[in-house]
Design a protein that fits this description.
GO terms for molecular function: riboflavin transmembrane transporter activity. It is found in: Cell membrane. This is Riboflavin transporter. The structure is a single chain. This protein has a single domain, classed as Arp2/3 complex 21 kDa subunit ARPC3 (Orthogonal Bundle), CATH 1.10.1760. A hairpin with an 8-residue loop joins β1 and β2. The chain is globular, with a radius of gyration of 17 Å. With 187 residues, the chain is an all-alpha fold. It is built from seven helices and two strands, in the order αββαααααα. The chain has a two-stranded antiparallel ribbon with strand order 1-2.
Length: 187
């Protein structure tokens, strides 16, 4: 990966942090602690433009920065959960899209990412997060099915729609250059 590409991915991570704070809002019908933010969109764009692991890297950087600036009300647990969710989404969507870079595969990748992320976060919440937050055992399953699973499906569906709408417009800024005259002249 070139220095230019690393800088672009770092900028996407920083943009993800900015979006987490500037555009976060609660969704109706969900508990207050479940808020939507579009901070995963830069990682999805990186996953499509550069590759799935670039999307995961953007998610990792975004969450490390968030933790270091003390930006998560839920501390290390919140940024870890955000990384697992966003990293899963970027990895799955990016892997599917990398098989054949078409609009159809982008849609399939995003749908596969939403389903996989929702299921992964269901397991993470069931076995780790909800018990860790002190949710009584008899309330874990109702909280999971009534709030957590639908929220993740809605959150990542919204991010997918925005990513799909924006990707073609911004991909040329992020993709690795096909031709670099400076490199060509050195040969």
């Amino acid at each position: 990966m070139s220095t230019k590409q690393m800088v672009r991915l770092a900028l996407l991570a920083g943009f993800g942090v900015l979006l987490m704070y500037a555009v976060a809002f609660p969704l109706p019908f969900f508990p207050e602690f479940l808020t939507y933010d579009p901070g995963d969109i830069p990682a999805l764009i990186a996953a499509f433009a550069v590759g799935p692991w670039a999307g995961v890297l953007v998610q990792l950087l975004k969450n490390v920065i968030t933790f270091l600036i003390g930006g998560s009300k839920a501390g290390i647990i919140g940024v870890t959960a955000n990384f697992i969710a966003g990293g899963t989404m970027a990895l799955v969507a990016g892997l599917v899209y990398s098989l054949k870079k078409t609009r159809g595969m982008a849609v399939i990748g995003l749908l596969a990412g939403v389903v996989t992320t929702t299921l992964v976060m269901g397991a993470v919440n069931y076995f780790w997060l909800l018990p860790l937050w002190g949710v009584p055992a008899n309330q874990v399953l109702p909280m999971l099915t009534g709030a957590v699973l639908p929220f993740n499906a809605v959150k990542f569906s919204l991010s997918s729609v925005v990513t799909f709408a924006l990707y073609k417009k911004v991909k040329s800024i992020i993709e690795v250059e096909k031709y670099d005259p400076v490199v060509e002249n050195k040969q």
